[in-house]
Design goal:
38% of the residues lie in helices and 21% in strands. Strands 1, 2, 3, 4, 5, 6, 7, 8 and 14 form a nine-stranded mixed β-sheet that branches. The protein has a five-stranded mixed β-sheet with strand order 11-10-9-12-13, sandwiched between helices. Helix 1 crosses helix 3 and helix 6 crosses helix 16. The chain is globular, with a radius of gyration of 21 Å.
């Protein structure tokens, strides 16, 4: 009987997954990776094998796949049809916020789950869906251990000056600090730099995780020393529907002058701001790049401006820069955005190779560039798999349950 481990990355309207198989009981390989997207709107299950072969492409009625629990059930049905009778040894999950208590991957217990629900107000766009997936798996595979892997963990260990929030300590209490997010992505990039770009792996590197959620991370010798995201996932760069850094007085204005409720302000900050708000068209960078609308141009200009500005701030925190790495959806797939950010950052000594930037090369800077510049696809699911395997000891025998 083959043995499997699952990795789940649950969002508000999607469920990404990766299936790892251990056919010989020792070595792990990627058996399938895919996602269920359009949950509650136009649900669709797609998956491919590790070599790109299409395994499934199935559409559902929206009422039959209305929420994350339905998505987990649909995934379970497909897994049973594909690998029925096999054993699931463990399930690893991306969980955005680990707070001050969880500094590394953690086996999920009812007590742990309760503490993670307490952190929902700090990550309302992600945390509820991450935790709902854990509960859905618990209902269907109650004897299978689950591991929570946190986007905040990689940033633990910053100096106090990088994490302090300058408000009265007797009012905010312990745990109110800058955390940083996208840690699983940054951890993956850090882990592959010695092989992909060994000349900068031990140096001062800024990684730009640019997607619907966007942030920058300053690495020194592969370790995070600062990040543009802080206490919540609202800080730093302008994002698809989040504003990034704004004057706190604006939030006061929303409460005091406009008379909005806390829930209304939360909705504005998490779901109605950023690229969507500036453009009035879309939160999707691809749509904005294809548009002739002046507001779409302004949204792109602002995103580039803020990215270059934050690169400069992290360069100061690092005391100089040896390398710049682009990753995630926009970072990996938009040569135009990369070019513009590099052009705005050329004062640092970045000289981009236009041909390399548009042809899919990993290295996109010229040999004369003072800062080595790269495009490296991220793989958060692989990091979750590694942590899950290490924590559960999946190289040895462990509790398992049939799919």
């Amino acid at each position: 009987m083959d043995e499997y481990a699952l990795v789940l990355n649950a969002g508000s309207s999607s469920l990404k997954f990766c299936v790892f198989c251990r056919p010989d009981g020792i070595n792990w390989r990627v058996e399938a990776r895919g996602q269920i997207d359009g949950i509650g709107v136009a649900p669709r299950l797609t998956a491919k094998s590790d070599d790109g072969e299409k395994l499934v492409d199935e559409k559902f009625e929206k009422e039959n796949l209305a929420n994350g629990g339905d998505a987990v059930e649909a995934l379970a049905v497909w897994l049973r049809s594909k690998w029925g009778g096999s054993r699931v040894l463990g399930v690893g999950h991306r969980v955005v916020h680990g707070g001050s208590e969880f500094a590394g991957p953690t086996i999920v217990t009812p007590e742990v789950l309760k503490k993670l629900y307490d952190l929902v107000p700090l990550a309302p766009l992600h945390q509820p869906y991450n935790l709902a997936a854990i509960e859905a798996v618990s209902e269907r595979l109650p004897d299978v251990p689950q591991v929570a892997c946190f986007d905040t963990s990689f940033h633990r260990g910053h100096t106090p000056v990088a994490d302090v929030i300058p408000l009265p300590i007797d009012m905010i209490g312990p745990g109110v600090q800058r955390y940083g997010f996208h840690g699983l992505s940054y951890e993956y990039i850090s882990s592959v730099l010695p092989d992909v770009a060994p000349e900068i792996a031990k140096g001062r590197v800024i990684v730009a995780h640019l997607g619907s959620g966007a942030s920058l991370c300053a690495l020194k010798d592969g370790k995070s020393i600062d990040s543009t995201l802080g206490f919540t996932a609202l800080d730093g760069l302008c994002m698809g529907t989040r504003p990034g850094t704004i004057d706190p007085g604006v939030v006061l204005y929303l409460f005091q002058t406009l008379g909005l409720s806390a829930k209304e302000v939360e909705t504005i900050l998490y779901k109605k701001s950023g690229l969507l708000a500036i453009s009035g068209i879309s939160n999707d960078m691809r749509v904005l790049l294809d548009s002739d609308d002046p507001q779409a141009k302004l949204a792109i200009d602002y995103f580039v401006y803020q990215s270059a500005k934050q690169i400069g701030s992290l360069a100061a925190a690092l005391g100089g820069v040896d390398g710049l790495v682009f990753t995630a959806g926009i970072g990996e797939n938009s040569p135009e955005v990369r070019r513009r950010i590099c052009e705005s950052s050329k004062w640092l000594g970045i000289e981009i190779d236009d041909a390399a930037n548009t042809s899919g090369n990993k290295k996109i800077s010229t040999d004369k560039s003072k800062i080595s510049t790269w495009v490296i696809p991220t793989n958060e699911e692989l990091m979750i798999a590694f942590h899950t395997g290490d924590l559960l000891g999946l190289r040895r025998s462990t509790t398992a349950q049939a799919i």
